[in-house]
Amino acid sequence: MMIVGARPQFIKSAPIIHELLKHRNVELKLIHTGQHYDPEMSDVFFGELALPSPTLNLAVGSGSHASQTARMMRKIETCVVREAPSVVLVPGDTNTTLAASLAAVKLAIPVAHIEAGMRSGDMTMPEEINRKLADHCSTLLFAPTQTAVCNLKKEGLGKATRLTGDTMVDVLHTVVPFVQLKQDTMLERLELLPQDYVLVTLHRPSNVDNLNRLREILTALRKVAKRLQVIFPVHPRTRARLAKLGAFSSPKNGRITFMSPQGYIEILILLKNASCLLTDSGGMQKESFLLHVPCITLRSTTEWPETLIGKANQLLFKPEMIPKAILEIAFNEKLKQTITSLRNPFGDGHASGKIARILKEAF
Fold this sequence. Notes:
Layout: E1 2-4, H1 7-21, E2 30-32, H2 43-48, E3 56-57, H3 65-83, E4 88-91, H4 95-106, E5 111-114, H5 126-137, E6 140-143, H6 146-154, E7 161-163, H7 167-189, E8 197-201, H8 205-208, H9 211-224, E9 229-233, H10 236-244, E10 256-259, H11 264-272, E11 276-279, H12 282-290, E12 295-297, E13 313-315, H13 322-330, H14 333-340, H15 351-362
Parallel strand pairs: 1-2, 2-3, 4-5, 5-6, 6-7, 8-9, 8-11, 9-10, 11-12, 12-13
Helix pairs in contact: 1-7, 1-15, 3-4, 4-5, 7-11, 9-13
C-alpha cells in the first residue's frame, strides 16, 4: 500500500508506482489522503504522470497540523486493517507521511520510507518533524544520497538503510523529452524569452503566513522586476495571503506575472528556461540543481545540502537581500558554467527499480 496526499509525493512516487505495476505478483493499493485537494495541486499530476486512479481518496482536506494528521490516521487505520498490506510505502515529509507511518507501525505493519534521512536541523519546520518520526517508524529506509545515509547511521538506523538514489531523477529522465517538445509553444504563449525572467515559488508558512514578511518579499520582487520579468506561479495558501495585501490589483507590480499553479511539465519548462529560481521548496531546489539553473532558497537551512555545492543553491533569509542576490546570479555566466559541470549526487535515474527489487526481496 502506497499512501500519498500532496503534490511533491505524486511526483516522487510516480516512477515507483510504474515500476511496481510491472510486477504481476505485486498488488498495489494506492491511497490518496486528500491533503492537497485542489485540482491544480492534485488531479493534474495524476494525468501528466500517467498515474492510476487511487484505490481510495480519503478526502481529509485542510486544517491545523494536529487535526489534519489525526483525521488521516483514523482513516488510514481503517484502510490498513481492511487491506492488511505486507508493507506501507510512505514518500517524502508531509503530514500524510507522518500519519501513514504512525498508523501502520501501530498496527505492526512494516513501513518503508522513500526519501529517508534528509535533515535540515530546523525542528520549527513541520517537514523536519515528519521526516524524522517517519524514519524512526520504518523497517526499510530508502536514502536518496550518501548524506542521507550518514544522517541515518548517526541516529542508529544504519541497518535499515539502503542507498537507492533519488526517484525525482527518474521522473526527470522520463519527462525531459516532453519538456523539450512543449517549451517553445509555452514560452511563446506567455511571451517569455529564455534567460529573460526569474521564476518564483513560495508556500512555506515562515515566508507567506507573516504578512509583514510577505510584504517585504513583494517589495523586493518589485525591485527585481525593474531589471527582469518575474514569473510567480502562486500556491493556493500564498494566493490567499497575497490577496490580503492587494497584490493582484496593484499597478506597482509592473513586470510581476502572477499565475495559477502549473502542472509538472509546465513548471519544469518555466524552470529550465529561467535565469534563476527563487524558492522555499525542497523539491525545486533539487530540480534546479539537476537542470543547471542557479537557485536562491528563501530559508536559513536546507534538507538538501548537496545543492549548495559550487553555489548552485544559496540560502538567503532576509527579503531585503533578494534583489542584489538575484541580479548577481541571473547574469553570471561563469556561475552557470560551474553549475553545469557539477557532479550529480542524486543518483543515476534507476532509484525506482532498486526500490522495487528491495521490496520484493524483503516481502
